[in-house]
Amino acid sequence: MTAKSMEELVALCKRRGFIFQANEIYGGLQGLYDYGPLGVELKNNLKASWWSSMVYERDDVEGIDASILTSQDVLSQSGHEDTFSDPLIDCKDCKARWREDEIKGKNCPSCGSPNLTEPRPFNLMFRTSLGPIDDGSSFAYLRPETAQNIFTNFKNVLDSSPHHLPFGIAQIGKAFRNEITPRNFIFRVREFEQMELEFFVHKGSDDEWHKKWTDLRVQWWLDQGINEDNIELLYVTGNELAHYSKATVDIMYKFPHGLEELEGIANRTDFDLGSHTKFQEDLNINSTVKQNTKSKSRLAIQDKNNNWEIPYVIEPSAGVDRGVLAVLNEAYREEIVDNGKRRVVLSFKPHLAPIKAAVIPLKRNDENLVETASKLKLELQKTKLGRVILENTGNIGKSYRKHDEIGTPLCITIDFDSIEKGTATIRDRDSMNQMTLNLSEIPDYYSQYIGS
Ligand code: GAP
Questions:
Q1: Is the sign of the CA dihedral 238, 239, 245, 248 positive or negative?
Q2: Which residues of 255-274 are buried (b: 16+ CB within 10 A; e: fewer)?
Q3: What is the pLDDT of residues 10-23, one digit of tens each?
């Protein structure tokens, strides 16, 4: 089961401390969100899962973390300065601004006026000045995607960690786009995070790798708890294809507001390395690239016969925030329990749960109970599988409800038997089943449950 509406998710996220509107106390800033105590854990867990599958579980991928501020040269060569724009229409009467595709007839959707401007390209990149003098002579862009400084670091990475084709470079980080109409909570925002892999392959093996990466990425989303029925693949065609792409498959997800892109897997051919390399004329570049007179680096690799080759690139590019929204939506479930009460549960996969276990002393002011619970909490925390908390409210029913709603897989209650017999009760979030274990058995049980 998923959430019934976006409103339900937004309310839960605020109430329980997952996600807040940014700058809320000053009225908020549109298209910007802050992750709260639970949101940051969920987001970090999703990113860690991606990094593990992309970098740690492979021998052919290296990671980087490059700067966000990016020079004009990079984004000119990449095509972003010329083409990274949406057509924008202004209403001359009410001054509302619209993306061209948002105007269905000939009138302003806000005030109904037919008095509209012609569409004009609106570049989505944010600029900021560098250094103390703000006269426009020295500026940088906030990167609109993490991909470009993977390409500009191609030679640095290869020189420091040699690889043969195929191999990849992965990066997780912030990207910025001045979206004209940010909307649908964290789905379309102006500051977001991407998880991108640029996987370099021999020309000729690119179609096969494109298919392979599409399958791998779909499987990864299923492993995060996304239901197969809520995913569709969209094979992008015609005008919808980005200028650099030979083929793109979008992984579409049924978000609460509709079926939309969660991740794109593009075959970027030799466009990017071909654009950023020096010696372009010697390198037999297949794509149409802008002439490069400034690059200081040959972004190519030598084959067995010492011939230079510009690799093709397969790029799985996922949005972290859209991923968070998708796993929250998937995990959301409402049910009526035996006592007739409604319970809300976030059934996250254990590796994504913001809090892995809550240790709850039966009474908050009983020293023995609290001390035993604290000791167990520390022991579980030492496994380094994620956050464990001591829930010292003295109200077991309320604690269970809270931890169901924030998706904590295990609640461990410390009662008087824990002192007298050395046992504790473990409650499973999803089944609500309870069982008794010796305190000494709990760390192993916990590690197996959460680590699996
Ligand atoms: N390097 C390729 C690239 O950036 P993209 O389709 O523009 O491709 C990749 O973006 C992913 O980044 C999308 O599938 C989406 O998950 C996420 N994304 C893009 N724009 C976003 C926005 N304004 N807000 C949140 N996520 C966004």
A1: negative
A2: bbeeebbbbbbbbbbbbbbb
A3: 999 999 999 999 99
CA of 359 to the centre of ligand 1 (A): 39
Nearest protein Cα to ligand 1, atom 15: 319
Q: Is 193 in the pocket of ligand 1 (CB under 6 A)?
A: no
Residue 217: predicted pLDDT: 98
319 lines ligand 1 (CB under 6 A): yes
Instruction: Say which residue the tokens 């824990």 belong to.
Output: 418
Residues forming a β-bridge with 4: none
Residues of the chain above pLDDT 70, percent: 100
Of 320, 318, 328, 325, nearest to 348 (Cα)? 328
Residue whose CA is at the smallest distance from ligand 1 atom 2: 317
User: pTM of the predicted model, to two decimals?
Assistant: 0.95
Q: In sequence order, which residues have a C-beta less than 8 Å from that of residue 167 and are 6 or more positions away?
A: 60, 61, 62, 199, 200
Tens digit of pLDDT for each residue in 299-313?
A: 999 988 999 999 999
Nearest to 294 by CA among 309, 279, 308, 281: 279
Nearest CA, atom 17, ligand 1: 319
Cα separation, 452 vs 443, in Å, equals 14
Ligand 1 lined by 322 (C-beta under 6 Å)? yes
Q: Rounded CA gap, 254 and 127, in Å?
A: 34
**Is 217 close to ligand 1, i.e. is its CB under 6 Å away?**
no
Q: Kindly report, residue by residue over 361-385, the tens digit of the pLDDT.
A: 999 989 999 999 999 999 999 999 9
Q: How far apart, in whole angstroms, are the C-alpha atoms of residue 92 and residue 108?
A: 9
Task: Compute the average pLDDT of residues 332-337.
Answer: 93
